[in-house]
Specification:
The complex is a heterodimer of chains A (about 450) and B (about 325). Chain A is of the alpha+beta class. Chain A has a 5-stranded antiparallel sheet. Chain A has a 3-stranded antiparallel sheet with strand order 3-8-11. The radius of gyration of chain A is 33 Å and the shape is flat. Chain B has about 325 residues and is α+β, with helices and mostly antiparallel strands. Helix content of chain B is about 25%, strand content about 20%. Chain B contains 7 helices and 12 strands. In chain B, strands 1, 2, 3, 6 and 7 form a 5-stranded antiparallel sheet that branches. Classes of the chains: A alpha+beta (about 450), B alpha+beta (about 325). At the A-B interface, strand 2, strand 8, strand 10 and helix 9 of A face helix 1, strand 2 and strand 6 of B.
Chain lengths: ~450, ~325
């Protein structure tokens, strides 16, 4: 795993080697070489010339390059939006739902990270472990709540809801049952008679990207009507798709735990995003045109909703397959477990001693035999038995190792079976509570799905 | 009642623009391979601020477009800009445009790289103020922004390197807006439209085209730059060096106050060069006393271009409208 740890930071040779081949390491480390503002400017210019530009000339001019980040996220399962419906929603109560909202970035997305050691003051936020850029789930929830407040502002002005934003948010959500269920409420020290936290039903996941680019902004100086010192920014590059995964946990059986309530909540949530996110964008400087999105696709997966199709990839959870056992498996067991190393050595030596006993017997016969032809036969037999001794030792060691491996596999299988049983028990929904899905594509897809959930289409 | 019955849609204005001359906003390598939001926003912000300054409102720009987070008088943006740049394409500009000068002196010329041509869509969304007491002010700010947008599209330029020919756009449908009522306030001391002039030099001939029928940008740029050099030459008089540098720009000293576009098509098959400027264009102001004479020289020079007189010259000078700048803004915006 490509991580930057303290051991690495303390090893100049490692640093040198990694710097030569990895632009992300360069960006993370070069600042340490700056001992003055001029050093920092020179290092930044050099980095941009070497890493962020194609065919840069001596003046640092060249075409901007899109830089690929390391990509282990999908392999290690961080990107939860890639899960199958069954995997994501198995065990969720009836009415629960999952939205996969795909969009395309149309302008660079700025997500400033708190990385004081980065070469640039404005790096994009990246996962500490993998280096992959992402928009944090908490940021997305905030942006979604902002869109909701604009889409369904209620009858009272925002300023009239309280003295500061936490108090206004509190009052807003108390006044809008949909908002309260969707986003919950944190008391944050708000002094109100009905204060107190309440968990929201929505669960957000990060949105992952893989490419970044460098940008520059040049503030103007009114005294000269010209630019001043350029400010460099790292940005998530446009023309990448992102998928927002939002899961609605429905407390079935509790008040407002019916499917109609969920549909209404999600309809308002999705409609808010559909009409406000494309005009307000995501991330930092979104009102200035950064983080612009174009809506691509909306996918709804839900537990026990009527009118949904079965997912195309609806392979349900399967009982784990039992690992096969070799015929000799039981021979290497003792007290329902593989032999200990000492026990195995004892058995091995016992078998080898049996062979050695045969060798000794044959050797004695060879010495007693006067007939030349018969003595030759005994010598051949001796060779075979001696060779078989080596084969036996190799075979027993291989079988012992195999049994240990199979034993471990079977232990894992037993545990997986136990988990499967529990999941089956928890997830066993009524007959009609299957996981269904509905997928729409195009720039109107989010809004169309919102209308369908609001039951405007079907009635 | 549907749960979506009360859905509030964004109060947005959509501008479908088409480039008349290429758009450029630089980039980290200054190659213009894409259009950057900050470059476009900066020019919209600047021009709307000029319009407000003409009406005596020097705080409009920060009130509408916001301030840095660490500003003392902090304002969030009251307008959101969203861009759809999908129908723009990068075109390669000539590396360098120059020609032998009449005085025989060698001059470096003008350098270009790439720029963007085609269609783009700007969506501007009005974010209503938190406090209802600010709503009237916010509505008048929004009105002025739309008027400024109309003027900028009709008479001025967008984005960067517009002093060298870039940034002329046209719109099929300009945003509808009510005209300004008469205003009594004096112009701000900040640079504003009261110091602006707008000219259009119209020619009978169409624009030169390449083999595919697209504008030949080398020739179009050179046409405009020859006009720029001609106008600059009108200030090449003894004692006018500092003024000339102030108005036409000087590296690391002054940004250009005068913008001269490349040659571009007119709907009637002819062509035009757009010239506009702001004198003075800095804060604090410089050369205020020289403005009248300088603009007269520029206007006179338009009658005798580098390659003949234009068939028609449209000329507007803010100095002629100081008595009623609101009416002039309405006129420039085409809503009078």
């Amino acid at each position: 795993m490509e991580t930057i740890c303290f051991d690495f930071l303390a090893d100049p040779e490692q640093q040198r080697r990694r710097r030569e081949r990895d632009w992300m390491v360069q960006a993370a480390l070069l600042r340490a070489d700056a001992h003055s503002p001029k050093d920092l400017t020179d290092l930044r210019s050099g980095f941009l010339r070497e890493q962020a530009l194609d065919n840069a000339d001596s003046r640092g001019q060249g075409s901007a390059r899109i830089l690929q980040c390391r990509d282990p996220v999908a392999r290690i399962g961080f990107d939860t939006a890639g899960r199958e419906a069954q995997q994501a929603l198995r065990g969720f109560p009836v009415g629960s739902a999952r939205l996969l909202l795909r969009f395309r970035l149309v302008t660079p997305l700025l997500t400033k990270d708190d990385d004081a050691f980065n070469l640039f003051d404005n790096p994009v936020r990246k996962d500490r472990l993998t280096g992959r850029p992402f928009v944090a789930a908490a940021s997305l929830k905030g942006l979604a709540a902002d869109a909701y407040q604009r889409a369904f502002p209620g009858t009272r002005s925002w300023a009239g809801l309280g003295g500061d934003d936490p108090a206004r948010t509190h009052a807003f959500r108390r006044a809008d049952a949909h908002a309260l269920r969707l986003f919950g409420i944190a008391d944050d020290g708000v002094q109100a008679p009905d204060s107190g936290s309440q968990a929201g039903r929505l669960h957000f996941s990060p949105v992952w990207f893989s490419k970044v680019q460098y940008l520059v902004m040049n503030p103007g100086d009114p005294r000269q009507a010209a630019g001043t010192l350029p400010i460099q920014f790292e940005a998530i590059a446009p023309e990448q798709a992102g998928v927002l995964e939002v899961i609605y946990f429905n407390p079935a059986g509790m008040p407002h735990g019916d499917v109609a309530t969920v549909r209404g909540d999600l309809a308002r949530f999705l409609a808010a995003l559909a009409v406000w996110w494309p005009v307000l964008g995501l991330g930092a400087k979104r009102l200035g045109g950064y983080g612009g999105i174009a809506i691509d696709r909306a996918e709804l997966q839900a537990v026990g909703w009527p009118g949904l199709e079965a997912p195309a990839m609806a392979a349900g959870p399967q009982r784990p397959t039992e690992p096969s056992r070799p015929a000799y498996f039981d021979h290497y067991l003792e007290n329902d477990a593989p032999l200990s190393e000492a026990s195995f050595q004892g058995r091995l030596q016992q078998r080898l001693a049996e062979v050695d006993q045969r060798v000794t017997g044959l050797e004695a016969r060879r010495l007693q035999q006067k007939d030349k032809n018969l003595r030759q036969k005994i010598v051949k037999e001796l060779d075979k038995v001696t060779a078989s001794r080596k084969a036996l030792e190799s075979q027993m060691r291989a079988e012992y190792a195999k049994v240990q491996g199979v034993w471990a596999e079977r232990e894992a299988w037993r545990q997986a079976c136990a988990v499967f049983e529990v999941e089956q028990e928890v997830g066993d929904a009524p007959q009609d509570a299957v996981i269904g899905q509905r997928t729409l594509t195009g720039h109107d897809s989010w809004m169309e799905l919102a209308r369908w959930m609001a039951v405007e289409d079907d009635q | 009642m549907s749960v979506l019955a009360t859905l509030a849609e964004p109060p947005s204005v959509i501008l479908n623009l088409e480039t008349c001359t290429p758009l450029y906003t630089g980039g980290v390598g200054q190659r213009g391979e894409s259009l950057h939001p900050s470059g476009l926003l900066g020019s919209l912000r600047r021009f709307s601020g000029l319009s407000a300054a003409a009406l005596g409102d020097s705080s409009f720009e920060t009130r509408l477009w916001g301030t840095a987070p660490d500003a003392k008088d902090r304002h969030a943006k009251r307008v959101a800009l969203a861009l759809d740049l999908g129908e723009l394409k990068a075109v390669t500009m000539p590396d360098k445009v120059t020609w032998p000068r009449e005085d025989g002196r060698s001059r470096p010329g003008w350098y270009f790289s790439q720029a963007q041509v085609g269609r783009l869509r700007l969506t501007l969304t009005h974010r209503s103020p938190t406090d209802p007491r600010d709503r009237d002010r916010a509505a008048s700010d929004w009105q002025l922004l739309l008027l400024a947008l109309r003027i900028q599209i009709r008479h001025a330029t967008l984005a960067a390197r517009d002093q060298w020919g870039m940034g002329v756009v046209q719109a099929a449908d300009l945003p509808a807006v009510e005209p300004l009522a008469a205003q009594g306030g004096a112009p701000s001391r900040h640079p504003g439209l009261q110091g602006a002039f707008f000219a259009q030099l119209q020619f009978d001939d169409g624009v030169p085209v390449d083999g595919g029928g697209a504008p030949d940008w080398r020739k179009c740029l050179e046409f405009g730059l020859r006009w720029r050099a001609h106008l600059r030459g009108a200030l090449r008089m003894p004692g006018m060096d500092d003024l000339r540098h102030y108005l036409f720009g000087q590296l690391n000293q002054w940004g250009s106050a005068i913008n001269v576009s490349a040659l571009h098509r007119l709907p009637d098959g002819g062509s035009a060069v757009r010239v506009w400027g702001l004198v003075p264009h800095t804060a604090p102001a410089r050369f205020e006393q020289a403005r009248t004479d300088a603009l007269k020289r520029l206007r006179d020079a338009m009658d005798t271009g580098p390659r003949g007189r234009p068939r028609r010259i449209l000329w507007e000078d803010g100095a002629a409208h100081t008595g009623d700048l609101a009416a002039w803004i309405n006129q420039l915006a085409g809503v009078a």
